[in-house]
Amino acid sequence: MQQLSSGPLHFSLLQVGIAIRYCLVRHLMAATEPISPSNTRVGWIGTGVMGQSMCAHLIRAGYSLTVFNRTASKAKALVDLGAQLAPSPHAVAARSDVVFSMVGYPSDVRSVLLHPTSGALAGLRGGGVLVDMTTSEPSLAVEIWEAAVAKGCESVDAPVSGGDVGAKKGKLAIFAGGEEGTVKRLEALLCHLGKVKYMGGSGKGQFAKLANQVTIGSTMVGLVEGMMYAHKAGLDVALYLEAISTGAAGSKSLDLYGSRILSRDFEPGFFVNHFVKDLGICLKECQSMGLALPGLALAQQLYVSLQAHGQGNLGTQALILVLERLNNLSLPSPSPSSP
Ligand code: NAP
Predict the structure, then answer these.
(1) Active-site positions?
(2) What is the pLDDT of residues 67-117, one digit of tens each?
(3) How far apart are CA 166 and CA 140, in angstroms?
(4) Which of 120, 186, 208, 309 is the most buried (most CB within 10 A)?
């Protein structure tokens, strides 16, 4: 029998053939086996405001989780729930069939998924799936998809909307881009995080999320302008918000942020810095599309003003502060007795 020689090691062609077939069969099995707690090992990279709650839902659903976060202490609550802590995205992927990422910026996504030595794709075996849920660039989603396919893996972009409250309740809107069959298989996991909508090929999930952010930008401006107007007109602003909440001006933004603004709770939630990142990606896309969206540009400028005042780490409801500064006027502070 013909031998392949490699230093002291000798393999027969038959052995090599068997090894290749084994890898192919493992790959095909991994790509077709239904996802379930008994079949599927899950990895999670990024355990901040959103990732922490989302990951906890999967652990409670019975999946075994391996997690990584830059600041390890932020993964402690998940380790207490039963997750294994890994030292790098690569190590997460080496122990997982499906790897989720929920980090901050596109540069973080690139680093945790595509870094040649420490990144998740480098550690993922054939048939594995990357699911990036960070709000990031559509072109980067396509780049990750191409790199994953070249390695015999798969990738899906699946950014979300619904805020920290949606993440806690497992009620996020999930916008998925990639192979439709892969997204369908992933529903077994995604159903624990919210409701998934398939938006089209790779990058289309990110495009949908960015369109969502265009909408929210102007919605937030409308919300805080209405509150300023109501206050200046002598209305009780809490009563005003209650009155409009069931009418045409009602919105998820009002539900999520109205009472936080009234109680002057500007904790994130959703970081101003992340919203400026999202709106900046949208504006860049608009420039290359030749699309004029003045409402988007206005919202981005108002949020940049928060950053200029050193308030980028507040939640997006802090937009009221910009309007207060513009008008030299403050909404009333809550009385100490109010809840
Ligand atoms: P976050 O609290 O800052 O969480 C991001 C986590 O990822 C942090 O714990 C961070 O580590 C970790 N991380 C970032 N870069 C990393 C890297 N290179 N390597 C390892 N870990 C890294 O932010 P979030 O609010 O959860 O938001 C996450 C993403 O979801 C953002 O893209 C945001 O725009 C999007 N989003 C947020 C909301 C919301 O309401 N919060 C809603 C929808 C979408 P550290 O702990 O060391 O900082």
Answers:
(1) 209
(2) 999 999 999 999 999 999 999 999 999 999 999 999 999 999 999 999 999
(3) 26
(4) 120
Cβ neighbours around 113 below 10 Å, total: 28
Task: Indicate if the pLDDT at residue 1 is higher than 50.
Answer: no
- Expressed in angstroms and rounded, the spacing between residue 31 Cα and the centre of ligand 1 is 29
42 plus 166 within the same structural domain: yes
Amino acid at 61: A
What is the extent of the structural domain holding 157? 13-201
Which amino acid would we find at residue 11?
F
Query: Residues 47-68: what's their mean pLDDT?
Result: 98
Ligand 1 centroid to 19 CA: how many Å?
Answer: 40
Show the tokens assigned to 107: 């540069």
For 219, counting Cβ atoms within 10 Å of its Cβ (0-12 exposed, 13-18 middle, 19+ buried), the class is middle
Q: Is the CB of 137 under 6 A from ligand 1?
A: no
- The atom of ligand 1 lying closest to the CA of 50 is 26
Structural domain count, the chain: 2
Q: Does residue 23 register a pLDDT over 70? A: no
User: Which amino acid would we find at residue 172?
Assistant: L
- Same-domain status, 36 and 181: yes
Q: Determine the atom of ligand 1 nearest the C-alpha atom of 277.
A: 34
240 and 186 within one domain: no
> Do residues 151 and 121 touch, judged by C-beta distance below 8 A?
yes
Residue scoring higher pLDDT (305 or 334): 305
- What gap in Å lies between CA 105 and CA 108, rounded to an integer? 5
Mean pLDDT for 300-312 is: 98
Q: Span 322-337, mean pLDDT?
A: 90
pLDDT digits (tens, 9 = 90+) for 254-265: 999 999 999 999
Q: CA–CA separation, 297 vs 127, rounded Å? A: 42
Do 192 and 249 share a domain, yes or no?
Answer: no
The protein residue whose alpha carbon is closest to atom 34 in ligand 1 is 274
- Quick check: is 76 in a domain? yes
